[in-house]
Amino acid sequence: MVFKLVVLAAFVAVAKAGVPFGYSAPVAHVAAPVAYAAPIPRTIIAEPSAPAHYDFGYAVNDPLTGDSKSQHEIRRGDVVQGSYSLVDPDGTKRTVNYAADPHNGFNAVVHKEPLAVAPIAPVARIAAPVHAYAAPALHHASYY
How many whole angstroms separate alpha carbon 138 and alpha carbon 80? Predict the structure, then answer.
């Protein structure tokens, strides 16, 4: 226990001295303080803000997969109006007309109508017949 205290005291002495044993460090010269420059004030540039104004739309009609959908949206400031439609798996076309504004909030009206043509169902592939083959006989050979 005494040994641990002696070692601890030696480490503390070295840490306070700042130099290792048997080493005489050259005298350090302290440089003159550096002149401090005041920070440059930031100027905040306000960008002009205009109300949002856009028209957006897309449509997909893939006869191979039966994927058919579309959307169109118009925004003028805080007023949004639009609609989208898609073919549901039950063969009906769902059309949703929606509108949103600060006074009425979001409102949507859904219409469903049957399609004249039944949707194309994915074609199931018939797997090739599986032939049963006998497994090769295992030969136990000694390779020692």
Answer: 74
Cα 47 from Cα 42, distance rounded (Å)? 15
| pLDDT tens-place values along the chain, 144 residues long | 777 777 777 767 766 665 555 555 566 666 667 777 777 788 877 777 778 899 999 999 988 887 889 999 999 999 999 999 998 888 889 999 999 999 999 999 999 998 765 555 565 566 666 665 655 665 555 555
Helices (H), the chain: 2-17
Instruction: Point out which residues pair with 114 in neighbouring strands.
Output: 92
In the block, tokens 């205009």 appear at 50
Residues in a beta bridge with 73: 56, 82
Q: How far apart are the first and last CA of the chain?
A: 64
What 3-state class would DSSP assign to 82?
strand
The percent of the chain in helix, strand and coil, each rounded to the nearest 5, is 10, 35, 55
The residue among 61, 125, 69, 73 whose CA lies nearest residue 99 is 73
What six digits make up the tokens of 102? 């600060």
Residue whose tokens read 């002149």: 35
Angle at 57 between CA 56 and CA 58, to 5 degrees: 145
